[in-house]
Design brief:
Elements: H1 2-14, H2 19-24, H3 31-63, H4 65-83, H5 89-100, H6 105-115, H7 122-151, H8 153-174, H9 192-200, H10 203-220, H11 226-234, H12 239-268, H13 270-285, H14 294-308, H15 311-322, H16 328-357, H17 360-383
Helix pairs in contact: 1-7, 1-8, 3-4, 3-5, 3-16, 4-5, 4-6, 4-8, 6-7, 6-15, 6-16, 7-8, 7-12, 7-15, 10-15, 10-16, 10-17, 11-12, 12-13, 12-14, 12-15, 13-14, 13-15, 13-17
Length: 391
């Protein structure tokens, strides 16, 4: 599963650094036009994923998550392959929308591993799985930048589709899924309404899922326009490569710390580590608006990767303990849906803010959101100090 996540994460990020540059090749457009469409093209994938994630989560609970992983890998490969042949931004927009239908591969892999891992090791194991994601995220943009500079943007999409198919092959032949049920839950079947009620009646769980939106909004607000920011700082020379570097360096920080954060969360509690990570991320995000050269931006992105590196595995491990086994896939599906909602809103917010106030202002807004999320979660923990149920 580590290698499958590596291929998916790497392939999904290979084209992100130059997505806005790809749009520029379709015609002679203004900067505002490119920034706005970059936000929409980037966000539409997550809009579709937001709708379908709970559906796929419930599908996994009943029929097995391995089946969806195979379907998702094939669907993603077809979508990305066809993007290499588009001739205008509308075609790219609709293919990105179709891509969102299958964008739950990594989150479903996390749900699969989470439900088959003892709760005392959940943070560490999910942290290890996260290293596969971030290793792909680290290498994908760099490789994509090199291919784009050498062979052009269209060829990069065609190359990217190959590892996506390989991920499906690895799942088919390399992953075994076991149906797990606790003794207390053997005869219990939850309706969709009961699953939502379970989330709603747990204030801490509800806040963790709300944080999923805020973190993704903050993180993705800069993503579709980062290459434009790199262009302002560094100029047009090897722009795709340096854009890839700015994306990838976050993955390096993530890679170095994801497993360690998971281990610390297993030891000291997932809630405390999550609060710490939110405040640290807010602190390191803010200076990004003041950088004056590409290398300062690279340092900021690296530190951001260190702080954000633990949020996903710690968050998933917490949900693993706060939901019954028989509905964990659906609960994680709702969490993924909220993450995709944040992924959708983030680029739109970033494009809107940068269009009116400049790209630097996006860093300030994102930092504020992360800080407010940390404060809100801390207050929720003070009001509801009792530990969550351990499933």
């Amino acid at each position: 599963m580590w290698f499958a996540n590596f291929f998916i994460a790497g392939s999904m990020t290979m084209v992100i650094p130059f997505l806005s540059l790809y749009i520029e090749t379709f015609g002679n457009f203004s900067d505002k036009y490119v920034q706005n469409w970059s936000g929409w093209v980037f966000a539409i994938t997550f809009m579709t994923a937001f709708i379908f994630s709970p559906i796929w989560g419930r599908f996994g609970d009943y029929y097995g998550r391995k089946k969806f992983l195979i379907i998702a890998g094939i669907g993603l490969s077809i979508s990305v392959f066809l993007m290499g042949f588009v001739t205008n931004v509308i075609q790219l927009f609709f293919l990105r929308m179709f891509m969102g239908l299958f964008s739950g591969f990594i989150s479903t892999a996390q749900a699969l591993i989470s439900t088959q891992t003892p709760k005392k090791d959940a943070g560490r194991v999910l942290g290890t799985l996260q290293t596969g994601n971030v290793t792909g995220t680290l290498l994908g943009p760099l490789l994509g930048g090199v291919i784009a500079d050498t062979f052009g943007y269209s060829m990069t999409f065609l190359v990217t589709s190959v590892p996506l198919i390989l991920a499906s092959v690895l799942v088919i032949f390399g992953v075994k899924e076991y149906k797990l049920e606790s003794k207390e839950e053997t005869e219990t079947k939850y309706s969709r309404k009961e699953v939502i009620q379970h989330i709603w009646r747990s204030p801490v769980l509800l806040m963790v899922m709300f944080i999923s939106i805020i973190v993704q909004v903050a993180h993705f607000s800069i993503q579709p326009i980062l290459s434009l920011y790199v262009g302002e700082l560094h100029g047009p020379a090897n722009l795709a490569f340096f854009s890839g570097l700015a994306f990838s360096i976050t993955g390096l920080g993530n890679l170095l710390m994801a497993r360690r954060w998971g281990r610390l969360a297993d030891r000291f509690s997932h809630e405390k580590i999550l609060v710490l990570l939110l405040f640290c991320a807010a602190i390191v995000y803010f200076p990004g608006g003041f950088v004056t050269n590409i290398w300062q931006l690279v340092v900021i992105r690296f530190l951001l990767g260190i702080t954000l590196g633990g949020i996903i595995p710690v968050r998933v491990a917490f949900i693993r303990q706060a939901a019954p086994i028989s509905i964990q896939g659906e609960v994680l599906g709702y969490n993924t849906s909220l993450r995709f909602l944040g992924n959708m809103l983030g680029p739109l917010l970033g494009g809107l803010i940068s269009g009116y106030f400049g790209i630097s202002s996006v860093f300030f807004v994102s930092s504020t959101l992360l800080f407010l999320a940390g404060v809100s979660f801390f207050i929720t923990l003070q009001r509801h100090p009792d530990p969550v149920n351990q499933y």
